[in-house]
Backbone:
C-alpha cells in the first residue's frame, strides 16, 4: 500500500486536488484491517455453518471425491464469479489503455520537441499599443540572437492549455450569411516567427513578418479548417475577410497553415484565423523559442533577456512544449494507470481464487485419481477430467463478465478517444487474458495430482 501511494502521488496529474496529501494513516490502516477481518470471518463462517447443519449419516452418504452438491455449487459460483469480475476490470483497463495509446498518436499540428515557452504580460496601464509593439520587436530580436536559438515567435494563447477568443466574420465577395447566425471562428494573435518556432506547415502563402505592423496593409492568416470550409476548391490567399472583433476591418489573407489541436488532443480543429500582434496589440503574450539543443538550457538566458528590457516584468509559466503536451494527457494517463493496476490485482486475485478452489477439489479427489491410475487410466484422460469442469465454469464466468462489461463500459464513452465501448477485439483480448489465467490456475493443481503414486494412495485408504 505504501508503494502504491508513492506511485500514485508521483504519477498523478496536478489537476487532481490535494493529491500530494494522500498518505497512509491510522484510519486507513484501521479500515483495511476491519475489511480484512470481516472478510475472513464471513468466508470462514460459511463452511462451518454448512457442516453444522449437515447430519452425520447424510454427510457419509453424500461424501464423494468433490464433496456434496452444495459444495460443488459453491465452488462453481466462486470460480465463475472471480472470472466474471476479472473480465469486467480487464475490459475497462484495455479500453482505457487503447484509448490512451490512440490519444498519444494524435498529431497536435505542431512540433513540440526543442521548444521553450514562457509568458509575459504587458499591462495596458503601462504599455500603449505602440509601446507593446516596440517591446515585442526588441524581445524577439534579442532572443533570436541568443546562441542555440533557431526561431522565436509570440502568440496570445498557446495550444493545449489556453482558451482562445472567438468572433464572427464575413468574407468579402463571398456568400451572405444569415444576420442572426453569422459564422464564427477562433482568433489568435500571433507574432513574426511563431509558426517557424512551433514547426507549423505553411500550406499556402507566407507567415507574418516584421513589416506587418501598424500602418501597413491589414493582413490575416487562416488555418486549414477555415480554408476547407469557406473556400472549397479555391485558394483563400489574396481574398479578404472582415472580423467583427476588429471592428469589421477588411484584412487580406496572406497565408494558410495546417490545423492545430489547440483546445485538446481530443477536440477536432475548428476554423480559425491568426492576426498579427504588431497590428492588433494584445497584453498577454506567450513566447515560443525553438532551440538547437535542450530547451531547458536556455531558460535562464531567456529570463535575463526579458529582465534586461524591463526589470518590472515577470516571466512565468516557463516550460517546454513537450511538457505542455504531456500535461494535456496527464488525466487519461492517470486513469489508465489506475485501471491497469486494478486489472492486475483482479487477475491475481482471480488466479489465486481459482487455484485455491481447484486445488481443494483436486485434493478431495486424490483417492479417486489413485484408483483410476491403478486401473490403467491414462494421465491425459485424468487431466482432461480435472480441468474440464473448472475450465467450463470459468468460461461461463467469462461470458457473464463480458455481458456485464458491455453494459458497464458504456458509462466510459465520454472518457474514450478513437475507440468505442463495444470494440470487439477489446473484449476478445480481455477474454483471452482471463481465460489464460484461469487455465493456468486450474492446470497447476491438476498437474501436481498427476505425480501421485497410486500405491501410496490405496494403502492410505
Residues:
Amino acid at each position: 500500500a505504501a508503494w502504491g501511494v508513492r506511485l500514485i502521488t508521483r504519477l498523478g496529474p496536478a489537476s487532481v486536488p490535494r493529491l500530494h496529501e494522500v498518505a497512509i494513516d491510522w484510519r486507513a490502516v484501521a479500515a483495511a484491517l476491519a475489511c480484512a477481518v470481516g472478510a475472513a470471518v464471513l468466508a470462514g463462517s460459511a463452511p462451518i455453518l454448512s457442516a453444522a447443519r449437515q447430519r452425520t449419516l447424510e454427510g457419509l452418504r453424500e461424501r464423494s471425491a468433490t464433496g456434496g452438491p452444495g459444495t460443488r455449487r459453491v465452488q462453481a459460483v466462486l470460480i465463475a464469479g472471480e472470472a466474471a469480475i476479472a473480465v469486467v476490470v480487464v475490459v475497462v483497463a484495455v479500453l482505457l489503455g487503447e484509448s490512451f495509446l490512440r490519444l498519444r498518436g494524435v498529431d497536435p499540428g505542431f512540433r513540440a520537441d526543442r521548444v521553450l515557452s514562457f509568458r509575459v504580460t504587458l499591462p495596458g496601464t503601462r504599455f500603449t499599443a505602440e509601446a507593446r509593439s516596440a517591446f515585442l520587436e526588441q524581445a524577439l530580436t534579442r532572443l533570436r540572437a541568443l546562441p542555440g536559438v533557431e526561431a522565436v515567435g509570440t502568440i496570445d494563447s498557446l495550444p493545449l492549455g489556453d482558451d482562445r477568443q472567438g468572433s464572427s466574420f464575413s468574407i468579402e465577395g463571398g456568400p451572405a450569411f444569415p444576420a442572426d447566425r453569422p459564422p464564427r471562428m477562433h482568433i489568435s494573435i500571433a507574432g513574426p516567427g511563431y509558426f517557424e518556432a512551433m514547426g507549423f506547415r505553411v500550406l499556402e502563402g507566407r507567415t507574418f513578418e516584421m513589416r506587418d505592423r501598424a500602418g501597413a496593409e491589414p493582413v490575416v492568416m487562416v488555418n486549414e479548417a477555415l480554408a476547407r470550409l469557406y473556400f472549397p476548391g479555391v485558394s483563400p490567399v489574396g481574398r479578404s475577410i472582415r472580423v467583427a472583433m476588429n471592428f469589421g476591418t477588411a484584412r487580406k489573407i496572406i497565408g494558410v497553415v495546417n490545423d492545430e489541436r489547440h483546445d485538446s488532443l481530443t477536440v477536432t480543429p475548428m476554423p480559425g484565423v491568426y492576426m498579427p500582434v504588431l497590428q492588433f496589440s494584445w497584453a498577454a503574450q506567450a513566447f515560443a523559442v525553438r532551440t538547437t539543443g535542450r530547451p531547458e538550457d536556455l531558460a535562464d538566458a531567456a529570463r535575463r533577456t526579458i529582465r534586461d528590457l524591463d526589470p518590472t516584468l515577470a516571466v512565468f509559466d516557463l516550460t517546454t512544449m513537450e511538457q505542455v503536451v504531456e500535461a494535456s494527457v496527464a488525466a487519461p494517463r492517470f486513469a489508465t494507470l489506475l485501471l491497469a493496476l486494478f486489472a492486475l490485482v483482479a487477475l491475481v486475485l482471480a488466479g489465486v481464487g481459482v487455484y485455491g478452489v481447484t486445488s481443494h477439489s483436486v485434493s478431495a479427489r486424490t483417492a479417486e485419481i489413485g484408483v483410476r491410475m491403478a486401473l490403467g487410466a491414462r494421465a491425459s484422460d485424468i487431466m482432461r477430467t480435472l480441468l474440464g469442469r473448472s475450465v467450463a465454469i470459468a468460461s461461463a464466468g467469462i461470458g457473464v463478465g463480458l455481458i456485464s462489461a458491455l453494459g458497464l463500459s458504456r458509462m466510459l464513452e465520454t472518457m474514450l478517444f478513437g475507440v468505442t465501448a463495444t470494440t470487439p477485439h477489446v473484449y476478445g483480448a480481455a477474454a483471452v487474458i482471463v481465460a489464460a489465467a484461469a487455465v493456468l490456475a486450474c492446470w497447476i493443481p491438476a498437474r501436481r495430482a498427476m505425480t501421485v503414486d497410486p500405491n501410496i494412495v490405496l494403502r492410505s485408504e
Q: What stands out?
A: The two ends are 46 Å apart (CA to CA). The chain is about 50% helix and 15% strand.
